[in-house]
Amino acid sequence: METSTREMRVPIQPQGPRRAAQDDAAALRADFPQFKIWQEATAPMNPEGRVRYVARRRRDDIRPHTVVTSDLSEMREVLGAHVSDALPGGQNSLLEP
Fold first, then answer.
1. What's the burial of 51, exposed, middle or buried (CB within 10 Å: 0-12/13-18/19+)?
2. pLDDT digit of tens for each residue in the chain (97 aa)?
3. Distance CA 26, CA 39 (A)
4. Helices (H), 1-97
5. Phi/psi at 36 (nearest 5 deg)?
């Protein structure tokens, strides 16, 4: 009787600080839906390369237009300050104009 083994392929998930940064970025997206937030590699050929995060407003009446930083804490601080100033009661939610 012939037995075959099936290889199970599991996608590799980032570990450690890289995974934590992805989780933090996902939380930032959830907290600030007024912005499209993504990550860019500043040195794509270098596996240890740096990344930066970009937030761009989704509507014309949201400020700031764009934030670029390598520090998610700084991005949270900048977005939070502007959104709190701009929205009634400091809410971090999408409001219809």
1. middle
2. 555 555 555 444 445 555 666 778 899 999 999 999 998 887 766 666 678 899 999 999 999 999 999 999 999 999 999 876 555 544 444 444 4
3. 11
4. 16-31, 72-86
5. -90, 125
CB 55 within 8 A of CB 63: no
Q: Which two tokens stand for residue 30?
A: 């959830």
Q: What are the φ and ψ backbone dihedral angles of 38, each rounded to 5 degrees?
A: -145, 170
> Rounded to whole angstroms, how far apart are CA atoms 37 and 25?
8
User: Domain map of the chain by residue range?
Assistant: 17-89
Assessment of whether the complete model's pTM goes beyond 0.70? no
Q: What's the rounded Cα separation, in Å, for the pair 91 and 12? A: 37
Query: Token digits for 39?
Result: 């990550």
Q: Please check whether residue 71 is in contact with residue 81, taking contact to mean a CB–CB distance below 8 angstroms.
A: no
